[in-house]
Amino acid sequence: MAGLKTALTLALGLAAGFAHADTSLLNVSYDVTRELYKDINTAFVADYQKKSGETVSIRQSHGASSAQALSVMQGLQADVVTMNQPNDIDLLAEHGQLVPANWRTRLPDNSAPYTTTMVFLVRHGNPKNIKDWSDLARPGVQVVIANPKTSGNGRYTYLAAWGYKKQQGATDAQAQDFEKAIFKNVPVLDTGGRGATTTFTQRGIGDVLVTFENEVALIDTGAGGKDFDAVYPSMSLLAEPPVTIVDKVVDKRGTRKLATAYLDYLYTPAAQEIIAQHHLRPRNAEVLAKHASEFKPLKTFTVEQVFGSWQKAQQAHFADGGTFDQVVVDKR
């Protein structure tokens, strides 16, 4: 009997050990970060094992940013979320009570370990001579943009165009007319940024794709780069993709320590180098300086400067009945 008890105790101990060694996280992210987090995860797992002796694994989920946030709010067990704009995490705080309202303050730089911006990708030789936001509103120019209702990518594009017009002294009514002219030129509204890229690069639809700088760089330097050219507008919107642990999930799963280490790792020089290699602008000044030749100087403005806050921008432009609905009413 004693022997059986000893064997049982040993078996339970071994089971606990295996469970500990098989710790995993789910990172729910937006749809153009697949390649980035594939590399980040590999590096983090190796670094964590070296420092702690523990073997861990990171699982990924990708899709349109806002749709991903809704999935988490509806029960997808994300230990961390790495979204492309703050509204998607605010949703988890305000309506899902999954993270605290002060989530931005828990990590450096408003919990955004890198930045990017919205730029253009055109057909090689730029046959439509597209140089700035104003060219997107010209008759005869087809513009590929992700749907701002479902995609942070599309939302940044919409706000960038509005902000460009406002920076020129336009009224809100003039900015809205400008958006109407642009979206009149949009042949299809894909649900996410990667879908919009596929529409432009593989389906051959459109004269210009508006998307994140890193997505444009990925295409421009890839195998099909000879077919496309990158175009930088005179100014654009600063994008600060935020990250956070999902408190309600990590406390339930017992993964807070691992999830915290994972997000902290994003700010390390090693991770910042990976971020730069994926054409995202790192926060680390030394790493950014090392890649200065790639990241062209560009005048940017923030959502806060033009719209007051992300919450105000969301309510005014993307809530039901907001300006975006008014802009595309004729397209339905």
TrEMBL record:
First and last residue of the signal peptide: 1-21
Any one Gene Ontology BP term: sulfate transmembrane transport
Keyword Transcription found: no
Matches recorded under NCBIfam families: 3a0106s03, PRK10752.1, PRK10852.1
Location(s), subcellular: Periplasm
SUPFAM superfamilies named in the record: Periplasmic binding protein-like II
Record family assignment: Belongs to the prokaryotic sulfate-binding protein family.
One MF annotation (Gene Ontology) recorded for this entry: molecular carrier activity
Native species: Caballeronia choica
CDD domains: PBP2_CysP
GO CC terms: periplasmic space
This protein's name: Sulfate-binding protein
Superkingdom as given in the UniProt entry: Bacteria
Keywords noted in UniProt: Periplasm, Signal, Transport
